[in-house]
Amino acid sequence: MPMLTPAARKAGVFPGGEGGQWPRDAPAMSDADPNFLLLAIDVGGLYRSLDGGNHWVAATVGWDARGANGFAFDPKNPKRVIGIAGNSMDYQEGWGPSPHGLYLSANQAASWKHVLALREGIGGAVAFDPTSYSAAKKMTLRAYCLSSHSGLFRSDDGGETWRKVHGGASSGGIQRDWTQGGTIPNHLRIHPKTGAAYIGGGAGLFRSDDRGKTFTSLYDEPVEGVDITRDGTLYVSGARKVQVSRDGGKTFTPLACRGLETFGKSVQNIRVSPADPRRMLAWVAGDNWKWVRSISHDGGANWKPITLDNTLATLPFNVRQGYFHWHPTNPNIVWGIGGDWATQSTDGGLTFHWKNNGNNGIMTGGLFNFSVHAPKTVFLAFQDYNGAFTTDGGATWNYRDVSGKGWGGQCYGGFAVDNSVMWYGDAEGWGSPRTLRMTRDGGATWAFPTGADGKPCVWEGADVSFSDPKAERILFASNWRSPDQGATWSRMADCEGVFTADPKTGALYGKKENAVVRSTDHGETWSVVAEVPGGFRDVAVDGERSILYVASEERLKRFAEGHWTTLEVPKDQYGAARVQTVACDPKDPRILYEGGTRDIYASHATICRSTDGGKTWRNLIVTAPLHPGAPDGPKEVGVVRVHPVTREAWVAGQCYGMWRIAPPAPGETGVSAEAASAPKALLPPNGDAMIVSP
User: Helix, strand, coil proportions of the chain in percent (round to 5)?
Assistant: First the structure.
């Protein structure tokens, strides 16, 4: 459910796309088929486009890692591509098999196969050697992978198998904080005519003429960017701005670079158009987020800053790295990133426009719920980007700077009781206390209500909000209650958050420490229904059968006839099950959803459904190769709720955005939890444990 603004819909955009996660590179495209593009996201998987970037869809079938860092397309075979998987952190020893490293697709990212396991979460580089194309096998055979931790690897069979060929000392050891403009300098380029491999990094620039076994030093200063054109002309960027070599790196000549302001910093990520080498892009990470991206149309003699057009963007613009990819044959087309979204230029890099349709990555903060009084109105609070509300059931969304910070804000437990009254918990950081903030005028203004003591209402319970389904004026925000639609608020002594209600009786269900509590008087008083061993994160109710379901201790537990039972649920690709959220269909509570995240990898059993109260299951994750234009479905589900009218399951996929799942077809049945589990991950060789080859 990408977020589509009314303005974007008016402009003809569909389905919309907010992004909201940090792209690790610009959209990359296949030389063999420029309509095939891939976009790497730091902790939100990857997206593909098969129509030249007009539409993006998630494409992570077989991709076990949380995020992606970059790609290398076979220059002659449009079906084959190698991807580098990662996360915002390195995969630690003791966590089990690493999902990071290299993945291979032979069907344009319709599915992936893990072919080399590495630990680093950020960085790395991969490249094909175009001189190794085999007409008989219809693919390019030789490829290289540069790992900042483990050295240089080579494949001689198109990426299927890999072996280490160099220990990696030549790549340098500098690792600066990329969130502040630095890069982990793993720059890898292959000479298009000789097949020589060039590596740039903190120790300089090096060339290998023997397929990575030995390297010759070419440039002994830190290198922040390397590019090579089709005729073999080599460009490097760094402290000396941009320099060029036309003899394979033996000598370098500085470009004039007039107008390329550096603010005393190095020039990063030089990118030269393969269709017109006079056109080039680079960027500089100045202090205090003064990150400037610049363009030259005369071979680097003169430069000026690019222009970014954010007209169709849903979220506020926040500066990001200057990552670019040029079209292989059209010098007017180049891809980049704006804030947290894809951009495209059709004027040779002078102006970049929003081109992010389908990129679905916003992350909700805490839990969300539906109001039975206005079910088409939903307000979502976002962990990093304020919040947005819909009044038409999710067809369009209205973003609001609810925190007043401009760039975004940490917002949790959002809720809308109707088109006018909405609220959330405002925080200064992910782990900071939440303070009630609300609007009573449909999002035009936001204020901090106060309690009876005149102080702001600081949440002391769960990040969840709700309204009484039988009394529209009674509202709940964490451990606070309002009897008059938010005019006044008071603490609830015996409830720390209201999660749900029995749709027939209206009885409210919440938590008090480790106990499920219930109220039948609109939240004035609460009584204990059951103590939950180990506490719980979420609760659902089947009022017809007097059954409670809770997400407790990462398991799904059922309370019936005074006893707790732990239900078996489908396991993910590594044989683990982690339940963090649960919901019943209000029309038929036998229909049960459970979901959970893995955080250090992407679970392939993240959302599952039962139509018989948890006896049998269906894993709702796509595991078969994608059809063109079809997305693979949600990942890392942290919240699930069922719409009271449409009966769609709305799921929040952490950094994978919001999704809607159609209700089950009449007569749908499931299988055992074991049979519904995800296919087991096929573990590739561990690159960190490989011995350097002679």
Answer: 5, 35, 60
Provide the pLDDT confidence category of residue 169 given band limits of 50, 70 and 90: very low
* Residue among 657, 74, 75 nearest 384 (CA): 657
pLDDT at 181: 43
Residue 233: pLDDT above 80? yes
* β partners of residue 153: 145, 164
Number of residues in the chain: 694
Cβ(59)–Cβ(68) below 8 Å: no
Distances (CA, A) of 114 to 82, 122, 232, 647: 10, 17, 32, 37
pLDDT of residue 175: 37
Confidence of residue 692 (pLDDT cuts 50, 70, 90): low
Q: Tell me if 416 sits within 8 A of 396, measured CB to CB.
A: no
pLDDT digits (tens, 9 = 90+) for 25-34: 999 999 999 9
- Other Cβ atoms less than 10 A from the Cβ of 55: the count is 17
Q: In this structure, is the dihedral angle defined by the CA atoms of residues 167, 168, 173 and 178, taken in order, positive or negative?
A: negative
Query: pLDDT tens digit string along 491-520?
Result: 999 999 999 999 999 999 999 999 999 999
14 closest CA partner among 609, 681, 562, 629: 629
Beta strands 307-309 and 351-354, pairing class: parallel
Q: What global pTM score does this model have?
A: 0.95
The percent of residues above 90 in pLDDT, for the chain, comes to 92
- The structure tokens 């209000």 sit at 586
Asked if 294 and 281 count as a contact pair (C-beta separation under 8 A), the reply is yes
CA distances from 602 to 340, 570, 598 (A): 21, 15, 6
Kindly calculate the radius of gyration of the chain based on its CA atoms and give it in whole angstroms. Answer: 27
CA 348: distance to chain centroid?
29
DSSP 232-267: --EEEEETTEEEEESSTTS--EE---BT---TTS-E
Model pLDDT for residues 583-610, shown as the tens digit of each residue: 999 999 999 999 999 999 999 999 999 9
**Cα(362)–Cα(129) distance, rounded to whole angstroms?**
37
DSSP-derived pairing of the beta strands 592-595 and 125-128: unpaired
Q: How far is residue 118's CA from residue 141's CA, in Å, rounded to a whole number?
A: 21
CA atoms within 13 A on the CB side of 622: 19
Residue corresponding to tokens 């006839």: 561
Of 410, 411, 422, 412, nearest to 366 (Cα)? 412
Confidence of residue 220 (pLDDT cuts 50, 70, 90): confident
State how far the Cα of 205 lies from the Cα of 226, in Å rounded to an integer: 9
Q: CA-to-CA distance for 184 and 517, rounded, in angstroms?
A: 51
Q: Count of CB atoms within 10 A of residue 607's CB? A: 26
Q: Which neighbouring-strand residues pair with 189?
A: 198
The first and second tokens of residue 685, run together, are: 């060789």
Residue 167's pLDDT band (boundaries 50, 70, 90)? Answer: confident
| 8 Å CB contact between 618 and 676 | yes
Angle at 16 between CA 108 and CA 329, to 5 degrees: 45
Q: What pLDDT does residue 183 have?
A: 44
| 449 CB-side CA count, 13 A | 26
Q: Please, which residues have CB within 8 angstroms of residue 255's CB and are 6 or more apart in sequence?
A: 241, 242, 243, 244, 299, 300, 301
What is the edge-to-edge ordering of all strands in the sheet holding 291-296?
A: 267-272, 280-285, 291-296, 304-305
- Helix or strand holding residue 10 (H, E): helix 6-10
* pLDDT higher at 204 or 36: 36
